[in-house]
Design a protein that fits this description.
It contains 18 helices and 12 strands. With 365 residues, the protein is of the alpha/beta class. 33% of the residues are buried.
C-alpha cells in the first residue's frame, strides 16, 4: 500500500535521502552501461535540467496539478504561458520523472513532482527557485574567474559580496531565506533526534539564528535549558522560541568573534564553521574553548565531504561556497580534525545523520 509522505512517521529528510540513494544507484548502474561520451553529455547538460525545474517551480505547476491531471491548454491559461512552449517544457520534465504524460497532452503528478508542491513536508521548491535565479546562476557562469583567482565570482559579477547584495535586494533575500528555512525545517528534527541531548544541563547554541535547532532540541528533550547566542538584532527576533520553551531559554546577544557565553556544558555550532576560512573558523572555535571547562562537549553540525571519488552533493556545495562566499568551504573529516587540533580540541566521534549534515563531537584536548 502506497504511503503518503505527509503522514509518514519517518522524517522527511530521511525519506528524501533514501529516495535519492535509490535513484543514484539506478543512475550509477545505467551510467556503467552507457558510453563515456553519453555520460559526459548528460552531466554537461545539467544546467538545462536546472532551468526546466526552475520553470516548473516558477509556474507553480505542481500546485496546479495537485488535485488531478490537466491538459496543457488549461495549464497554459492558468499560468499565462504559450501552450506549445509549455507542452515542450512538460515533455522534458516528464522525461526526468517530474510529471507524467498519461495521454496526449494530459499531464499528472509523480512522486518526484510532489516535492515541488508548496506545502509538501519535503518540498524543494524554494531550492529550485533559488538555483535557477540569476543570483545563483550567474556566478556559475563566471566560474573561470574563481578558478583563476581563488576569489568569489559573485563579487566579480555583482560588484559586492553576496550578503551585502541580499541586504540591498529584499526580494532576493526572501528567496535565499526561504530555502534556508526549508533546510532548517527538514534537518533540525533529525539532528534533535540523533544525539543524546538529554544528558546535558545547559546547551549553548552559538550563532543559533532564530532558534530553530535549539527549539527542536528543547521540545524533544525536556531536561536541558538553552542559551540562544547570536547578534543582538537576531536573537531579539527569535521567532522559534515560543511560549512552551521560553522559560527554559535565555537569549544572549553578541558576536562569536568577540566572545561566547560561558556556563554551558554543551556548545553547538550548526552550519557556522563552513561559512569561514580556517583562520576565522579557528577564532570562533577558540572562543568556544575559552568559555568551556574540560568536561564540556562541543558539537559542530556541518556537511562532511566523503573521501575519494564518491559522488557527494557536499562537493558541489563546497564549490558553490567558493563562488559566492570567499573563505567559506565544506570540509573533509581530516580537515575538521586539523581545525579542531589548531583550536585546542580533539574529535571524539563523527555521527552521520539522516539529514544533510553530520554531528562532529569534540572536547578540549
Amino acid at each position: 500500500m502506497k504511503q503518503d509522505l505527509k503522514s509518514s512517521p519517518i522524517p522527511p529528510a530521511f525519506v528524501v535521502k533514501s529516495m535519492q540513494a535509490v535513484q543514484t544507484g539506478i543512475l550509477n548502474f545505467a551510467n556503467r552501461l552507457a558510453p563515456p561520451f553519453l555520460q559526459v553529455l548528460e552531466a554537461a547538460a545539467g544546467t538545462m535540467s536546472t532551468q526546466v525545474i526552475y520553470a516548473a517551480a516558477k509556474l507553480n505547476l505542481a500546485d496546479l496539478l495537485k488535485n488531478g491531471p490537466k491538459r496543457v491548454d488549461d495549464l497554459a491559461q492558468e499560468t499565462g504561458s504559450n501552450p506549445d512552449a509549455l507542452y515542450r517544457l512538460l515533455r522534458v520534465l516528464a522525461s526526468i520523472k517530474i510529471f507524467r504524460e498519461s495521454s496526449d497532452r494530459l499531464f499528472e503528478m509523480t512522486p518526484a513532482a510532489e516535492t515541488l508542491l508548496s506545502d509538501h513536508p519535503a518540498s524543494v521548491r524554494p531550492f529550485a527557485l533559488l538555483v535557477g535565479d540569476p543570483i545563483w546562476r550567474e556566478p556559475w557562469g563566471d566560474i573561470m574567474y574563481s578558478l583563476k583567482t581563488g576569489e568569489d565570482s559573485f563579487k566579480h559579477v555583482y560588484e559586492m559580496n553576496f550578503f551585502d547584495y541580499l541586504d540591498e535586494h529584499k526580494d532576493k533575500s526572501a528567496l535565499f531565506n526561504s530555502w534556508m528555512t526549508r533546510v532548517s525545517n527538514m534537518n533540525c528534527p533529525v539532528i534533535a533526534a540523533s544525539y543524546p541531548f538529554s544528558r546535558f544541563k545547559r546547551i549553548v547554541d552559538v550563532g543559533g539564528g532564530h532558534g530553530s535547532l535549539l527549539a527542536h532540541i528543547l521540545k524533544k528533550h525536556p531536561g536541558p535549558d538553552g542559551v540562544l547566542f547570536d547578534l543582538p538584532a537576531v536573537v531579539e527576533s527569535a521567532t522559534e522560541i515560543d511560549e512552551s520553551i521560553a522559560s527554559r531559554c535565555e537569549k544572549t546577544g553578541g558576536s562569536f568573534f568577540d566572545f561566547v557565553p560561558g556556563g554551558g556544558d554543551l556548545y553547538i555550532l550548526q552550519q557556522i564553521i563552513h561559512d569561514w576560512e580556517d583562520e576565522l573558523a579557528i577564532k570562533i572555535l577558540s572562543n568556544c574553548r575559552d568559555a568551556m571547562t574540560k568536561d564540556d562537549k562541543i558539537l559542530v553540525i556541518d556537511a562532511v565531504i566523503k573521501p575519494g571519488n564518491q559522488r557527494d552533493m557536499s562537493k558541489f556545495i563546497d564549490l558553490q561556497m567558493l563562488l559566492i562566499n570567499k573563505g567559506g568551504r565544506e570540509r573533509t573529516a581530516k580537515e575538521f580534525k586539523e581545525l579542531f587540533q589548531k583550536s585546542g580540541f580533539q574529535i571524539l566521534k563523527i555521527i552521520p545523520t539522516a539529514s544533510m549534515f553530520s554531528i562532529i563531537e569534540g572536547r578540549k584536548s
